[in-house]
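Hi F.,

I've been meaning to write this up properly since the lab meeting, where we talked about keeping a consistent format for the predictions we share between groups. The idea is simple: the sequence comes first, exactly as it goes in, then the structure tokens exactly as they come out, then a line or two of notes. No screenshots and no reformatting. I'm using this chain as the first example so we have something concrete to point to.
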Amino acid sequence: MNGYKFSINLVCGAGAAFLGLLSIAVIISAFLLAGNPAIAWLCLLFILLVVACAVLLVVFLRRKLVLFSDSLCRTIDDMLDGAAPPQQIHEEENLFYKINYRLARLYEVLRENRESMAKERADLQELISDISHQVKTPISNLKMLNATLLEQPVLEEKRQEFLMASGGQIEKLDFLMQAMIKTSRLETGIISLDRRIQPLYDTLAAALGGIVLNAERKNIHVSVACPKDIVLVHDRKWTGEALFNILDNAVKYTPADGDIQISVQGWEFYVKIDITDSGKGIAENRQGKIFRRFYREEEVHDIEGIGIGLYLAREIVAMQGGYIKVASAVGCGSTFSVFLPYE
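Output, unedited:
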């Protein structure tokens, strides 16, 4: 047919012409064979009824198709514009219902993808803003120290002091970048947890190893009650990272000669890890904020840290199907409870 396209109107016209010619041929044939005009008139009446029914059916179907095509175009336009979802057709299981149902499903998928992309974009902008805010101070300090060393003559003792200060700022930047890498890997799903059945005792011991030195410097007494026979499915490296972050916070905010107690209990579906310190405590209206990225209370800004440890801990535990609860009161210390599922 060389790509020639037939329109619906042309097809309907051709069909009507064919039926008309066929009807005339049938009437003439009936008249010639029967020789009775009454039979010819009956055939004509029958053919007219059939044609009328066919015309009504074609008109109904054409109207149905036109209305559905208009509705389909409006629905697609609304989907592209992010407007309201398609209206549901409450009919029997027919072609129109099936197409409308799949359009509704497509709309939901597109809407979820649009919302997911918007959330990722907002999270990325927030992360960039947080990073720029966090690196601003150490970079400014490094510029000032470097300019002082280059532009002004300083004594050797003072120069060593400046170099040590620069080293401290570089370490802070390095720690910040490592935290950023861990955060971005967690949020983008790059991290694949190696969850396997293994004892919690060894994971907790590795986390405790990272705080021993700082705890000894402040003469903080650390007590641990963890049964060696508790075994659960978890990623040792990242679970240890989460526990270390909570323990590191406990050491930072517990005064000298304080106490930190760690207790582990096996429940029916979860293992509960309580980390209790004798620090300053957290006000109730701030307990929901401490897990935010880069959140730090105003009165602790003089203590080393960037406010990302608890955020990482919560994300790591959540990725393994667990959760963290905090119970605290100002002046009475805090208890962070980590719940990890057995499987």
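Notes:
DSSP finds eight helices and seven strands in the chain.
The radius of gyration is 38 Å.

If this format works for you, I'll send the rest the same way.

G.
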